[in-house]
Write a structure and sequence with these properties.
A hairpin with a 2-residue loop joins strand 28 (416-420) and strand 29 (423-430). The chain has three helices and 35 strands. The chain is mainly beta and 507 residues long. The strands form eight sheets. Strands 22, 23, 24, 25, 26 and 27 form a six-stranded antiparallel sheet that branches. Strands 1, 32, 33, 34 and 35 form a five-stranded antiparallel sheet that branches. Helices cover 10% and strands 53% of the residues. It has a domain at 233-414. The two termini are 43 Å apart. The protein is globular, with a radius of gyration of 25 Å. The chain has helices at residues 2-26, 300-316, 354-362, and strands at 29-38, 47-50, 56-62, 68-76, 82-91, 94-102, 105-112, 120-126, 132-137, 147-150, 154-161, 164-171, 177-179, 189-195, 201-208, 214-221, 227-232, 239-247, 253-260, 267-275, 281-287, 325-334, 337-350, 370-371, 374-389, 395-402, 407-408, 416-420, 423-430, 433-440, 443-452, 461-462, 471-474, 479-490, 494-506.
């Protein structure tokens, strides 16, 4: 009898194992729809403004008369069916610096091109039919907005004036603008403008405190942009370089980011801070060496050597320090945890002879691309790290995702995540190939896989030598969109150049 029972037990275990294998193997990227628009080689490219479940907008600037240009606009629904199409005049001396779809409207922010005028122009366009209102925003401080957010009551524009962070609020009700109170009069870095559904928002700035230690300043504002609370994180003599934040349902403030050296060029680890409504702070620090899977992007032998060195230093009681350039991109709630996503990168410079250097420099390279006689060759990404924290800021797990071949001249987020109840999908797009990985806490449910961006016909081939750099971004619910310009070769019919958008999800 016991032998039969044992046999059934083994059969059940085998069934569960096969079920698990089948489940993990079934996880895949689904490219459910594609939009194509023929474009000429020298034609102006489209940009995309996602509108969540309302679809997305296509936008590009076209030359026109001597006085004004035109913005070509089109709204597509989530099935890529065109809702409307039209043109909007824009002053020839104004440049578009921000665009956001929110509250069933499309907002377009532009500024005067050479700072001889400081005022902004804001267009509020109805998503339904394209009707619009123009707002002239008075501004008395010359700054270029690098952050643009829409709240329930107005628009937020953040930038710098002589390295001093500046944030302006424009009220849709009063049609007046003001510089936010409570900002520093010293140099610093604007790390986040975080808005909330009730119209309130937070401003996070990385700057030195009175002790000369770099920390994160958190400024809470109500829906009318009045300052509610202004405080900094207690740093324990560690320099806090960059951070992202969110608020919980019980009004707890959660702040996560990186800490490092005084020059703020390198990070040595990550921190997680929680602040309760009374102002009580708790902060945890985690060196990169404390993470279980931080070095997984390395080849196996190199990873083993690094971990062995860490263990030897721990035994000897020595400090373990690893310096990385690291960007924190996302801090999101997940079940009873918080997920932090960041990416490691390094800049690369190349040395060329004087003749080549001269042609590069006279060809338009600014001093920001040249250092010590070397030319900046872009940022190279090594890996993404995703971590789970509990409500006290204690790390629960960590995982990583190797990034291959990515080079960019502007720092941006490549790896995106899709948090599902029983797994987390990590994916990024580069060279028209989607790379993905499925994890569950410290476990890897499915290793790195690759899938090419699909065209309308299976036999079509993307000419990678001619294709533009494609992008991947969040759309709505669990959907993403990939877009760019491709030269598509159809055997027997020649080549065609298209602007494309692919709708995709991870199932």
């Amino acid at each position: 009898m016991s032998s039969i029972s044992t046999r059934y037990r083994y059969i059940n275990l085998l069934f569960l194992l096969l079920l698990f294998i089948g489940y993990t193997a079934s996880a895949q990227i689904v490219q459910s729809a594609r939009f194509e628009l023929p474009v000429g080689r020298n034609e102006v490219k489209f940009g995309i403004i996602p509108a969540h479940q309302d679809g997305l907008f296509l936008i590009r600037r076209l030359g026109s008369s001597d006085v004004s240009d035109q913005l070509e606009l089109a709204r597509l629904d989530t099935a890529f069916q065109q809702i409307w199409h039209g043109y909007l005049e824009i002053n020839k001396k104004y440049i578009l610096v921000g665009a956001r779809a929110q509250n069933e409207k499309l907002f377009l922010l532009s500024r005067y091109m050479d700072y001889s005028k400081n005022d902004f122009e804001l267009v509020s366009m109805a998503q339904k039919d394209g009707s619009y209102i123009r707002y002239a925003i008075k501004n008395f401080i010359p700054f270029n907005p690098i952050e643009f957010q829409i709240t329930q009551n107005g628009a937020l524009m953040g930038g710098y004036y002589n390295r001093v962070p500046v944030v302006m609020f424009y009220s849709f009700t009063t049609e007046k603008s003001k510089i936010l109170p409570g900002l520093l009069n010293e140099s610093g870095e604007l790390t986040q403008l975080k808005t909330y559904p009730d119209g309130s928002f937070d401003v996070l700035i990385s700057a030195k405190n009175i002790q000369g230690i770099k920390t994160i300043w958190i400024k809470n504002y109500d829906a009318n942009a009045d300052l509610i609370r202004n405080y900094s994180l207690d740093t324990d003599d560690k320099h806090l370089i960059f951070a992202q934040s969110l608020k919980t349902n019980n009004n707890m403030q959660v702040v996560a980011g990186v800490f490092g050296t005084r020059n703020a060029e390198y990070s040595r680890g990550l921190f997680m801070a929680t602040i309760d409504p009374s102002g009580m702070q708790q902060i945890r620090y985690y060196n990169f060496a404390d993470l279980q899977n931080f070095f997984k992007y390395m080849k196996a032998k190199r990873e083993q050597r690094v971990k062995a060195r860490i263990e030897r230093k721990k035994i000897r009681g020595k400090k373990i320090r690893f310096n990385y350039r690291f960007l924190v991109h996302e801090l999101v709630p997940y079940k009873d945890q918080y997920i932090l996503l960041g990416e490691a990168f390094y800049p690369k410079y190349i040395t060329v002879d004087s003749r080549t250097y001269g042609s590069f420099f006279t060809g338009g390279f600014s001093n920001s691309y040249v250092r010590n006689g070397r030319i900046f060759d872009g940022y190279y990404y090594t890996h993404a790290v995703v971590m789970g924290f509990n409500h006290n800021g204690d790390i629960m797990w960590d995982n990583s995702f190797e990034i291959n071949d990515v080079r960019t001249f502007t720092l941006e987020q490549f790896v995106k995540l899709e948090a599902q109840p029983d797994r987390i999908a990590l994916l990024y797009l580069y060279d028209n190939v989607l790379r993905s990985k499925i994890i569950k806490d410290n476990q890897v449910l499915e290793g790195k896989t690759s899938e090419a961006i699909r065209t309308n016909l299976d036999r079509e081939i993307i000419d990678k030598e001619e294709a533009d750099v494609a992008k991947l971004d969040y759309w709505y619910k669990d959907y993403f969109y990939a877009f760019g310009v491709q030269d598509v070769i159809n055997p027997g019919e020649g080549k065609r150049r298209v602007f494309f958008i692919n709708k995709l999800s991870y199932e």
